[in-house]
Design brief:
2 copies of one chain form a homodimer. The first copy, chain A, is built from 3 helices and 11 strands; from the N terminus they run E-E-E-E-H-E-H-E-E-E-E-H-E-E. In chain A, the strands form 3 sheets. Chain A has a 7-stranded antiparallel β-sheet. Helix content of chain A is about 10%, strand content about 35%. The first copy, chain A, is mainly β. The longest helix of chain A is centred in the N-terminal third of the chain and has 9 residues. The interface between A and B is large, with 58 and 58 residues. Chains A, B: This is Flavin reductase.
Chain lengths: ~210, ~210
């Protein structure tokens, strides 16, 4: 079995959100799909270790914010490489309540769902949601997972189904929080002290030389 | 609810296949995703009206052939706009048996699965499969659903979850089988008589003027 075969599957990049006792929480996800058109249903797959999984199960509703190529890539790090258990992920991002659920402003569409079914798997729960609200909010191109990897050079969180231990070129600087590999034209050492990881927003000090 | 929001979700283009009493059958699908990495599991969503749905349920196994941007687009029509009930869809395509399942040769990867779970929805069955074999067979770029729509100008089959009744520009020639809208430089009337729809392979005679 060649794990590279799994990399040929195509995905988008989303933030799946819910309420945690009145506080918004959420996580980055790449596995979301429309399942039926009438009634409109959408599925998301969320790792059981993600705090968002428990919140969706408790709340019975979730929202999907669709990131675009113009979305700030630090959203992916904020929602993908930290836990909502002990972090307010929504603290520094613009968000609003749409159809009673929190959605990110810096996205090109949102879909709000009521959970009507679940499928249990060894590590993830697949939530099936009946769509209660949806809107396309910009004409920006939706971000694909391939774009995130190939253009933003982002990495995969360990809780993601697509995670495979990855090799990095020796001598490169890697963000120890999100795995982002610096590949800019300015030598890493000469970046200003207030430079931050473009994916997860962590400071220069968390980067490690491979 | 704005159905355009659903168009911002990202997908690939796949042929999902199984055995029908020893005969290969399959259908085009855009909804496939890796759900867990260890053990590796993959899900596909198949309309209950598709003959392939019954065959997967009976056989207990399915394969996923991942189409690339270099794959012959007529595969999409052959597998997406005809029924395997009364057609041998594999008759005119190259295919082989890999890990005991039929897979298409003109693809960039295949994944073979044993069904370990299902989720019922109003119109589709979500099959969860444990991966028993997988191989990346070329370096070609996997075809995304956006590429199929924007570059190949393909349409959506009525059984697909993403189907929305579509508008077509007046005066254009449309394939009555698959909905492909001709947009070549040669006027449609001047195309040779043996010209065929590049998506589903049907002859010129099935085209209708909008």
């Amino acid at each position: 079995m060649d794990p590279k075969a799994f990399h040929t599957l195509s995905y988008g990049v989303y933030v799946v959100s819910s309420w945690d006792n009145g506080r918004p929480t959420g996580c980055t996800a790449n596995c979301a799909a429309q399942i039926t058109s009438s009634p409109a249903t959408v599925m998301v797959s969320i790792n059981k270790d993600n705090y968002t999984n428990k919140c969706i199960a408790d709340c019975g509703h979730f929202s999907l914010s669709v990131l675009s190529e113009n979305s700030d890539p630090s959203i992916i790090g904020t929602f993908g490489f930290r836990s909502g258990r002990d972090t307010d992920k929504f603290e520094n991002v613009a968000w609003q309540v749409r159809d009673a659920l929190p959605v990110l402003s810096d996205s090109c569409a949102y879909i709000v769902c009521r959970v009507i079914g679940t499928m249990d798997t060894p590590t993830h729960t697949v939530f099936l949601g009946e769509v209660t609200g949806a809107e396309k909010t910009s004409e920006n191109t939706p971000m694909t997972y391939a774009y995130y990897h190939n253009v933003i050079k982002g990495k995969t969180a360990k809780n993601a189904p697509t995670y495979i231990a990855q090799e990095t070129e020796a001598g490169k600087y890697i963000c120890s929080v999100c795995g982002y590999e610096y590949s800019g034209n300015i030598p890493f050492e000469q970046l200003p002290d207030d430079w931050r990881c473009p994916v997860c927003g962590q400071p220069k000090s968390v980067f490690r030389k491979k």
